[in-house]
Amino acid sequence: MNELDDFLLNQQSDEGDSGAFEEDLEPEETEEEPDEEVTNGKVCSLCGTEFTEEHGHPVVCKDCSGNEAAQGIKTATFPEVIGG
């Protein structure tokens, strides 16, 4: 047994069964919070294109409106920000 093995063995016995490198971590959130800009219609729900004003509800840009994923989402009525 070398010094590193001896050190690691001592660390494990000092910490009990949890192991030398194990940490108590908070469980990760499985659902992401919806982006406020998407929820308010400031950006396209699919590609993130920014609009000049909020729509007050989720929208898609004209380019994404034909996408199958856009089904049921209204198309933006305010213009897109150019060079934003």
Give a verbal description of the structure.
- This protein has 84 residues and is mainly alpha-helical.
- Helix content is 20%, strand content 5%.
Helices and strands, with pairings:
Elements: H1 3-15, H2 36-39, E1 59-60, E2 74-75
Parallel strand pairs: 1-2
Count of DSSP H/I helices: 2
Q: Structural class, from secondary structure content?
A: mainly alpha
What would you call the shape?
rod-shaped
Strand arrangement within the widest β-sheet reads 1-2
Provide the β-strand percentage band: under 5%
The topology string of helices and strands comes to HHEE
Number of beta strands: 2
Let me know the largest β-sheet: 2 strands, parallel
What's the Cα radius of gyration? 25 Å
- First CA to last CA: what distance? 62 Å
User: Quick check: average pLDDT?
Assistant: 80
Show unreliable segments.
none
Helix content: 10-25%
